[in-house]
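Case study: Wax synthase domain-containing protein.
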Amino acid sequence: MSSWLPINHGSAFTFGSTELTFLILFVMVILLVPGHAIFTRFISVLALSAVTYKLQEVFFRLCNNPHWRGFIAPMLCIQLMSASELVLISRVESAPISATSASSIVTRAARTVDLLWNLRRIGTRWQVKNVPIALPSTRAEFVRRRLITTAIAYLILDVIISGPPPPSAPFGPEKRALFQIGSLSQEDIVFRIIGTASYWFSAFLTILIVFNITAIAFVLTGLSSPKNCPPFFGSIKDAYTMRHFWGNLWHQCLRRGLSGHADLMADSILQIPRGTLLSRYTRIFGAFLISGLIHHVNDVAMGVRSADAGSIFFYPLQALGIMIEDGIQALTRRLHVSYSVRRLVGYVWVGVFLAWSTPTLFYPQLRVGTDPGLLLPIHVARPLINYVKAVWQV
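Here is what the predicted structure looks like once written out:
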């Protein structure tokens, strides 16, 4: 258990106090600094960045589990991005936070922190697009459904990580080729396809488990309600284009921060006129580039050398995929092809593009050789598998 989540009381206290410093500074800026005070707000974002750097430093001393280092370290960057979006781009002030003029400072501070961590901005004027609809339910019904879903996801993930490790040959540095596909053997291609599917399914399950546990805790304690905890992921039926894969199926937690900063870069810094193709694709590439930088922290936290990390390449490639499919759709729009055939071709396209690009992301992580069993604190599948093997040997 100690290898799964080591406890360092000194580092834990330092981490908690540093996070509290971040939250206090953020709340003070939102509630006290007017939105038009751009320079002051910019300086405050620099200060929040310095605190985030310290948070990551302390967290790396606190946690030795590479899987959870890789999961939580980028979350600190996402917290910073959320704060920066609220402070500099949306320029949220005290008035929208206060339900009434009589709201106490504690109430306003709590609402401000809630907005910071409400990454999809559910129930606010800033809510992101394509959030799945929450089914009407009581707290008891919500908790029961999410507990069942979480238990099933946990068991499936446990089965996946309890399997035999993959052979080392198929994911060597030369195997994540993007353009020398002809140099790959049939075994390499099969591993690439299966590995890509397994990677995304495991990522989906891991994120789903963490989100559901958090949502259950917030609903049980009354800090949130079922209507404010809609499903985290969309429908796989929507994943017939790369744009829909990232914009509808996958979680939208980063959408507000990524699009806000990409818009700032294209509109205010580069001053590219809105409505042009250059503006559209600059903002798309900018959003995926920022996402790549955030996920680069995930790679390094998991033990991948910075020079080998693939996130900084993988995520901008997704913008390229969207650009390619936009062009193909524009060229084939007048062809008389049925909607069902277009969707079928779209599903194949998304699968092929992900199988082509994803190895740049997860092959370097596989080469680190981290024990996948460290991902979960309790294992049910592995003892069961060992028992079945023992029975068969008898």
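For the exam, be able to explain this: The two ends are 31 Å apart (CA to CA).
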